[in-house]
Amino acid sequence: MEVLYSSTRGGSIRVKASEAILKGLADDGGLFVPDHIPALDKSPEELAGMDYRQVAYEVMKLFLTDFTEEELKDCIARAYDSKFDTGEIAPLAEAGGAYYLELFHGATIAFKDMALSILPHLMTTSARKNHVKNEIVILTATSGDTGKAALAGFADVKGTRIIVFYPKNGVSPIQEKQMVTQKGGNTLVVGIHGNFDDAQTGVKKLFSDRELAAVLDGKGFQFSSANSINIGRLVPQICYYVYAYATLLREGKLVSGEKINVVVPTGNFGNILAAFYAKNMGLPIGRLICASNENKVLYDFFRTGAYDRNREFVLTSSPSMDILISSNLERLIYRIAGNDADRNRELMTALTRQGKYEITDEMKAALSDFYGAYADENETAAEIRRLYQSCGYVIDTHTAVASAVYQKYVKETGDQTKTVIASTASPFKFTRSVMNAIDASYDSMEDFELADKLSGLANVAVPPAIEEIRTAPVLHHKQCDVEGMKDAVLDFLA
After folding, report:
1. By mean pLDDT, which of 8-12, 33-37, 294-298, 329-333 is the weakest?
2. Which sign, positive or negative, has the C-alpha torsion 73, 76, 80, 82?
3. N or C: which end of the chain has fewer CB within 10 A?
């Protein structure tokens, strides 16, 4: 059955998957959502006999219904290849009473690789399918990981350019070095004087600037997005939750139909929304545990039903979660509002104008699948240390937030359901924070010395993504204020 996509802010126009991928953001500022969530048409036992690429096809074919089998399988084969340093693509590691879904084995050692390895291929295939003649300009805001993963995916891809904005003082040194050393004649990286929410809001304004769109169209360009607001980012993320379940079933850790809980360290809400979609496809998931850091806007929302970004923005050791406007939450709000675009638009307008909104009791009742909690900086460090000392397993700061929240969840509920924790980044991406959590005496070392020391402690080789930036020259020096983002785009495209 064909799946069509409409905007969360106006459901009258429906487009095919390839059109939604190309546009990224709907013309009215809304996010594209499927007209229905399709059910898995393969049994858990059948999925358990498949490798990652095969599972990915079985999931994505149900959402991307205007792609041919040949087109979709070609995109998958190009994406999930030797860029990943494990044959499984997304292996599970059992540690401390939970299963850590390692999503960081791609080219940039963060979970964004799982979707951004395939998005360029989905994008260029979509352009061919829709006879697009313009050059596609990928415009992206990043809190640290999306930027590098998008740059790596789109660098030197014919018919595309990519511009990444990041908060100049809001990412880790390794994250910044990964971005500013990026090669590719079609790439631009800009550090903005502000936080991630400023960058994200600026990018959304550029997307909705119709005068700018007309100017670019005249020059042979059109915008699209590599952020998780793009449905082409969200759909591939569903795949790894299905694969995780199939893996546990194949390894005899589950019986067919047995439920699992899923814990996700959450910032922009795309990763946990993908798990929610997987659950609604029929995957046996119980609770969706939303883990926040000290920027706990989502924790407060799930507890009270009020979303309020009017608060202090905290820079933490888990910077990819330092977000106060969780864009993908809009897709969930639209759903629990009964797919009412008018109601959703009212709430999003309130968020823009007053910085807050509150859902009804009926909508709040529809969130029963979710549990929200947060971990502060001390709890995050303590969880890294606890897991390393108890079983020698080393996790990064974002995964540690999720792991600490899981411990709170079990203590509060007593729920012993088998649990998958989304491990969203390699500890090598946040070496200083990770090593300081294990032993503060490491703080005197340089960043790359710390990487070598971490390699010894974790008994894991330093990833190529770290090795290649040790001596790489900085190629991107541009910085601007938020008000200068439009000029930065125009200068680059000139």
Report:
1. 8-12
2. positive
3. C
